[in-house]
Amino acid sequence: MSQPLNGRLRPLPWWALLSAVIAPVAYIGGWLYAGARTTAYDPVRSSVSDLAAANAPHRWIMTVALLITGVALLVTAVGLRPADSAGRGLLGIGSVATLIAAWIPNTHVGHNYVGHMIATYLAFAALSLWPAVIARNAPGAPLVIRPTFGKAAAIVMGLLFLLTVADIITGGATLGLRERVLTTTQLVVPLLVALGVARLPSPVLPEQVLHA
Predict the structure, then answer these.
(1) Minimal CA–CA distance to 47: which of 201, 182, 140?
(2) Is 106 helix (H, G, I), strand (E, B) or coil?
(3) I need a labelling partner for 61 at 20 to 30 A (CA). Which of 101, 102, 135, 171 fits?
(4) Helix/strand/coil (H, E, C) string of 4-71?
(5) Measured in Å, how far apart are the chain's first and last C-alpha atoms?
(6) In sequence order, which residues have a C-beta less than 8 Å from that of residue 11 and are 6 or more positions away?
(7) pLDDT digits (tens, 9 = 90+) for 139-164
(8) Picking from 139-148, 169-178, 197-206, which range would have the lowest pLDDT averaged per residue?
(9) Of the candidates 53, 61, 67, 73, which has an alpha carbon nearest to the alpha carbon of residue 31?
């Protein structure tokens, strides 16, 4: 776990906050720009992966956006020192899975490639679960690294994850919309955590960190 430094939470470096901002901006900007340049692309029905598929007309836009997003998440995981290391580890796994999904695209628009889908599901799962294990259950700890916030965030993202997977399996007409809601939420949560520990002073904590 992330131990207190001299009785205080370890501080959040400025670059971790910057990377937490970059991740959602790169991702959302990527699918907005790539989608706008792709004729007849339906963001409600079609997944983000279609924009980065091997035969997509402007695949490089979404591929670069996913790579930037993955790297930014990894940097955030490294720098989020006030949080417990278990949660940071899961965030790191989600970031690496995002990079793999970008590196192994679907071969054709509208068709799911096994390697890409495994990486995508791993990213979805890790980025949904990590807030549940970042808690520092001690007096004075910022709200964003207390059990209530982390578990609530994980439950919400877990439900969004299940709804998205259900749409993938059934070929639902709102896959693109559900996926965007899920992934945007998954990228906003690290930013909220980073903002929460950056804006509040580092409180004095007991050496024994209690978990809920």
Answers:
(1) 182
(2) coil
(3) 171
(4) CECCECCCCCHHHHHHHHHHHHHHHHHHHHHHHHCCCCCCCCCCHHHHHCCCCCCHHHHHHHHHHHHH
(5) 14
(6) 81, 82, 202
(7) 677 889 889 999 999 999 999 999 99
(8) 197-206
(9) 61
**Tokens 């809601």 belong to residue:** 181
Q: Do the Cβ atoms of 96 and 118 come closer than 8 Å?
A: no
Average the pLDDT over each of 7-21, 112-126, 179-193 and give the range with the smallest value: 7-21
Q: How would you label 159-197 residue by residue, b for 16+ Cβ within 10 Å and e otherwise?
A: ebbebbbebbeeeeeebbbbbbebbebbbebbbebbbbb
CA distance 74 to 126: 12
What span, in angstroms and rounded, lies between the C-alpha atoms of 80 and 73? 10
The pLDDT of residue 11: 79
Q: How far apart are CA 177 and CA 195, in angstroms?
A: 27
CA angle 30, 166, 76 (to 5 degrees): 40
> Quick check: helix, strand or coil at residue 210?
strand
